[in-house]
Amino acid sequence: MELKDKLLLIKENDYQAPSDIFPLVQEMIHNIGSLDAQLRDELIYTTLSNWIPGHALTVYELEQILPVVLDENHLHFRLGETNSDAVFTRSFSMLVISLFLSRHRESPFLSKEHIHQIKENVFYNVQKERDYRGYDEVKGWAHAIAHAADVLDDLAQCTELDETDLLTILDLVYQKITVTDRVYSDGEDERMVKSIINVLNRKILSETYIKQWIQRFSDVEKDSEFLPAFRQKNNIKNFLKSLYFRIKFHQLDADLGPTIEHTLYKVEPVYYS
To answer: Are 180 and 151 in a shared domain?
Structure first.
């Protein structure tokens, strides 16, 4: 029976795990970047999102899967390419990591070494990712940046990460928000903001540093070409607005509000004159 047919039956059976779950999961991971959007997203990912947090897999089995998900054929598969199908493998491997971290927060099972391994691989992926597409009309969600944002959010909540790691998360978000290749249009700004909120919730970084980080968005080096500079400016504005209202909603660090406001004024002074 083909993998898709197996997973359709499992879905119809309310995701009840079969007795041969581990080899089936290995097959699913092998096909994590399938160009069949239904197989990749609705079946493989959704099934894993039921099984991994739902403890259908043992800790030993998860420990066997983790290095595969993090390897050159998955999370780092042809990393740096743009507009190629390899993005689906990287992006959905990233979502599997999110499932690992979600289960770990609910019931810790990852060692400090595992967390470090995940962190270093995720940070490297985010730094090098260059495919900024959201939804592809033919092949479905690519969404590498949004999925990366989800994992940065998961990592920010891990007590195993220290001040240096949280600073790295801020820097990676800054790098991805200030890109000039595309205006994010598929919720990437909101997903990135979520990781920042959880960095703030850790209460490790000083308010002074956070303010300086926000102010950096108005001082970013602008591209000399109009269109790249325009895209970058729109990404920054969208992100800062999302950050502003999320901080207000969660009633976090009220003093950051005026800092965001003044940064927005500097980013787009024409509308605030």
So the answer is: no
Structure tokens of 235?
Answer: 């990404």
Mark which of 160, 180, 200 sits at the end of a domain.
160
Residue 192, judged by CB atoms within 10 A of its CB (0-12, 13-18, 19+), counts as buried
Structural domain total, the chain? 2
- Chain segment 207-261, per-residue pLDDT in tens: 999 999 999 999 998 889 999 999 999 999 999 999 999 999 998 877 899 999 9
Q: Are residues 51 and 186 in the same domain?
A: no
**Final residue in a domain of this structure, among 160, 192, 211:** 160
**Contacts of 65 by beta carbon, 8 Å cutoff, 6+ apart:** 25, 26, 29, 57, 96
Residue type, 173: V
Alpha-carbon gap, residue 238 to 183, rounded angstroms: 9
